[in-house]
Amino acid sequence: MGNKYAKPDPLERARDGDEDALEQVLGGILAPLFDLALHYWRQPVRAELATVVGLQGLARVVRDGGPPDGVSPLAVAVEHLFASTERPPARTSSPDDLHRRLGDLEDDRRRAVLAFLACDLDEAELIRALGRSNARALLDVGLSELDGSESEIRQSLDEEAARTALPPGLVDRAL
Predict the structure, then answer these.
(1) What's the whole-model pTM score?
(2) How many CB atoms lie within 10 A of CB 162?
């Protein structure tokens, strides 16, 4: 028997119009979404702008009653982040070997690899976020082209993201 005093989860409350719950939902995905944007665009200001776009897209979807059950809010935000008008990054001349190799990947492969590693998206979420039914193949090929273990690449990305502070006020800007 359930607790009669338990509140529905924040996503359910946000779907019902609770703006505080929506803020909680957005705040819950903020860090991985910003990390993804930071790795993809390689510039904090561009990453910040794209993150706000991703959060705004998710906020619209939630206010319209979504996302559907089984679709994670993070996958929806990633989908909107990649659809942002922020132009894609140029190839990098980074002295960092990993980022040079990431920059050499075809863009769809780079998106798949970074969404998977920064946001821990599963296959269904990747398909949703990338809008590509072959998202798993893009991920597998992208990872194989990076020449390193998944855990080593993830650790390197996590260490880099930890060096950049999360900008304040992103959720407020998205609302």
Answers:
(1) 0.89
(2) 9
